[in-house]
Amino acid sequence: MSIDFIYSDLMWAFFFLVLIAFASLSFLGRKQSDTRRKQNTTKLPPGEMGLPWIGETMDFFNAQKKNKLYEEFVQPRIVKHGKIFKTRIMGSPTVIVNGSEANKFFLSNEFKLVKSSWPSSSVQLMGKDSIMEKDGERHRFLRGVIVTSFAHSGLETLVSKICNSVQLHISKNWHGRGMIHLYRSAKVLTFNVVFECLMGMKVEPELLPTFERVLEGVFSPAVNIPGSRFWRAKKARKEIENMLVKVVREKMKEIMEGRLKKEEEGLLLSKLVCGIINGEITEQEAVDNMVLLVFAAHDTTSFAIAMTFKMLAHHPDCYTKLLQEHEEIRKEKRSGEDLTVEDVKKMKYSWQVARESMRLHPPIFGSFRKTIADIDYEGFSIPKGWKVLWTAYGTHYNEEYFKEATRFKPSRFEEEEATRMGPYVYVPFGGGPRLCAGYQMAKLNILIFLHYVVTHFDWSLLHPHEPISFDPLPFPSLGLPIKISPKISLTAPSQI
Ligand code: HEM
């Protein structure tokens, strides 16, 4: 090899190195200026992130504990920063959004731009295979099974089952008593109704405290140390799981041996078990979704019932009108005759009252989403991986949507006025692909319970100004004790 050749090789290598260095520098320079340009155009929403990790968590929890999350945390920040603002809660950068446009944008973009986001404790306790953790096709499939099981049973069957459960509950727990904790009573009833209507099961009263122990851990830190709330909740979840696995396996045997009763075919439990037999659903999915449904139905419906009674007690003119509606329905019934779907359809004013009560006291404050892409919204950028909290209060308490927003006025939901209400304004049941799957059942439960109570008892609140607490959902702090006395009526009594 000649020296010339070596020399020219070295020249080439040197030239090459210079070229690479130049290319790298210009690439880095371009990248830096890209980042700078991006930083200039990236406008995060206004708001304060507070200290690292902690952020504004303490303020958030303190307000939540008093059930004043909107008044003490959200509203003052709306005044300071506007309807969309950033904060940091439990380590997560979070954007809180308010207003019907924001509700629509974030709720309807589920799976595309955002996905539902629950704390680790909730996921572990409700189960990672429940509908709340599923996306896209799997979510659509499981939701289909749940919703069609309600539709398949038919409204008439649902009404008849709820009537039986309500009458049984009242005759066992209300008669002969002068005082009832209404919220507690509604909880026991809702628990029985869910098991009866979804699984065709009568449950032992001892099972309710076990379920409640699970609920207590749902929003507590996921620390599995003996004695902690989460540890107790996990133990309770295991007990429930063992019980439900047995129920599922027994039902599977029944179906495979052709012993399933005709009237049980439409039940959610039967549908889930058929799904297991056909290889479409796993046993864990069936169990997790049953646990989730009890959780989703239980505290929400009981709180809605409790708040409806509370608002009626504070508005005697509304109560007179509501009572008249129920007395008219009752007058048309023979002794002991159950309500029908047609009767429930006549409870128009009662549903206005219940809706207005849920506007002022939404059982669910709102819920968290996680962004799965960088989002540009209203001139702000929300980076991928941040949390978004949409709120029901942000529209329910806004004068832009509801004049005299803090006033109890059921006539807002009269047909004509309600049709003028825009979409995503009234959102106690959420919206978009995750709209509450149990809306119909909640409505029937509230109206039928109202009917039997107001037509059979005179009642009054024992503590008219009882505060609302929060753990992990809102509840009347004393359980809404009411004084009751059986009605002496001249019209034909329905037997309870
Ligand atoms: C007054 C009573 C109720 C209220 C206020 C309520 C409220 C809500 C809300 C706001 C959501 C949406 C949560 C989100 O977007 O993250 C939801 C979802 C859900 N609710 Fe309800 N709910 C009630 C009763 C029920 C009942 C009785 C059931 C079933 C028996 C039920 C089953 C569900 C299910 C399965 C979901 C999840 C839907 C999905 O992810 O696709 N709810 N509910």
Secondary structure elements and pairings:
Layout: H1 3-41, H2 57-65, H3 69-81, E1 84-89, E2 92-97, H4 100-108, E3 114-116, H5 120-126, H6 136-153, H7 155-173, E4 179-181, H8 182-199, H9 207-217, H10 229-256, H11 268-277, H12 283-314, H13 316-331, H14 341-345, H15 348-360, E5 366-371, E6 375-377, E7 380-382, E8 387-391, H16 393-396, H17 415-420, H18 439-456, E9 457-461, E10 468-470, E11 474-476, E12 481-486
Parallel strand pairs: 2-8
Antiparallel strand pairs: 1-2, 3-5, 4-12, 5-8, 6-7, 9-12, 10-11
Helix pairs in contact: 2-3, 5-10, 7-8, 7-18, 8-12, 9-10, 10-11, 10-12, 12-15, 12-18, 13-15
The protein binds protoporphyrin IX containing FE (HEM).
Residues 116, 131-132, 143, 146, 194, 293, 296-297, 300-301, 304, 363-364, 367, 428-430, 434, 436-438, 441-442 line the site of protoporphyrin IX containing FE.
Describe the structure.
The protein contains 18 helices and twelve strands. It is globular, with a radius of gyration of 28 Å. The chain has a five-stranded mixed beta sheet, with helices on both faces. It starts with a helix and ends in a 10-residue tail after the last strand. Helix 7 crosses helix 8, helix 9 (207-217) packs across helix 10 and helix 10 (229-256) packs across helix 12. A hairpin with a 2-residue loop joins strand 6 (375-377) and strand 7 (380-382). Residues 1-40 have low confidence and may be disordered. The protein has a single domain (98-486), classed as Cytochrome p450, CATH 1.10.630.10. The chain has helices at 3-41, 57-65, 69-81, 100-108, 120-126, 136-153, 155-173, 182-199, 207-217, 229-256, 268-277, 283-314, 316-331, 341-345, 348-360, 393-396, 415-420, 439-456, and strands at residues 84-89, 92-97, 114-116, 179-181, 366-371, 375-377, 380-382, 387-391, 457-461, 468-470, 474-476, 481-486. With 496 residues, the protein is an alpha+beta fold. The structure holds protoporphyrin IX containing FE. Protoporphyrin IX containing FE binds next to helix 6, helix 12 and helix 18.
